[in-house]
Amino acid sequence: MKRAPVNKIIPFSNVDGPGNRTSVFFQGCPFDCLFCHNPETIHLCCDCGACVDQCPAKALRRDAEGRVAWDSGLCVQCDACIRRCPHDASPKIRWMTVEEVLGEIRRSAPYIGGVTTSGGECTLRNDFLIELFTEVQKLGKTCLIDSNGSFDFEADPRVLAVCDGVMLDVKAVSPAWNDWLISYPRDQVLKNLDYLLEAGKLQEVRTVIFPDRDAENETTVRYVAERIGDRCDYKIIRYRPYGVRERCQKVLGEYETDAAYAQRFADLAQSLGAGRAFVV
Q: 45-92: same fold as 3-41+97-279?
């Protein structure tokens, strides 16, 4: 029976695709983005135990095998464990079956248009996604993937066969900027951009705009806009320092991207044919 590490399930979300959706966040990500807003989803818990004594609600303990065990009934969601973790992980993970995830989706089903899987990086669990999406479609709901682009969608067509669309991050195009910002090769992301466009499965592209990074921002926006045209939405996202790691604030700054500055790049995208570009 397949199980996957689920970080959290949000029953109702209006920011993870069109309309009202249930969002399922999986644990684990191959990227190490400098500006990651949920770094606790990057790695699986290694049971170091640094978080156990930090929990004010006593919701964490060592089990008989010495692993860190989480009691969701006692947890008050203060995130003290996440702030203490030295490994970009979380002890608050549920290893769930497809049927267990579906059980939570069914409770929201009358009020949602579909399901979005995210992370971390949900495509690390592509076999689980295929089984989950197959069942979700039987409920008459759409299935979207929120992806960093590390997964080779062309190599495994089974995923797109049961998926209605992909929301793709294109974080950086300049090789030097990408290597510094992401610490992961960009080639697969750019390959996916073209492949998903041609497959008619690209729901939207997202690029974060950083303060005072004119050349790097423009290179990425220009590359994306010239390819996507009016075929999908292009979200120009203002960098916000809230929730990112301390080292990110030291390198990229403590202030969010000015709205007018971000709008410059949305205007650039529109001038290059990406008429559905907008700032968020």
A: no
21-26 and 202-209: which strand pairing?
Answer: unpaired
CA of residue 133 relative to chain centroid, distance: 17
Tens digits of residue pLDDT in 48-67: 999 999 999 999 999 999 99
Q: Which amino acid is at 223?
A: Y
pTM: 0.95
Among 3.30.70.20, 3.40.190.10, 3.40.50.2300, 3.40.50.720, name the CATH number for the domain at 45-92. Answer: 3.30.70.20
CB-based burial of residue 13 (10 Å sphere; 0-12 exposed, 13-18 middle, 19+ buried)? middle
Q: Which amino acid is at 240?
A: R
Report the alpha-carbon distance of residue 42 to residue 38 in Å, rounded: 8
How distant, in Å, are the alpha carbons of 56, 59, 68 from that of 53? 8, 10, 11
Angle at 220 between CA 214 and CA 226, to 5 degrees: 120
Name which of 35-44, 94-103, 186-195, 246-255 the model is least confident about.
246-255
Where along the chain do its domains lie?
Answer: 3-41+97-279, 45-92
Q: Measure the CA–CA gap between 102 and 97, rounded to whole angstroms.
A: 9
Count CB-CB contacts under 10 A for residue 53: 9
DSSP code at position 148: -
Please say whether the beta carbons of 125 and 4 come within 8 A.
yes
Using one digit for the tens of pLDDT, what is the confidence trace for 164-206? 999 999 999 999 999 999 989 999 999 999 999 999 999 999 9
Q: What is the dihedral of CA 204, 205, 206, 207, to 10 degrees?
A: -160
CB neighbourhood size of 107 (10 A)? 12
Q: Distance between CA 247 and CA 230 in Å, rounded?
A: 37
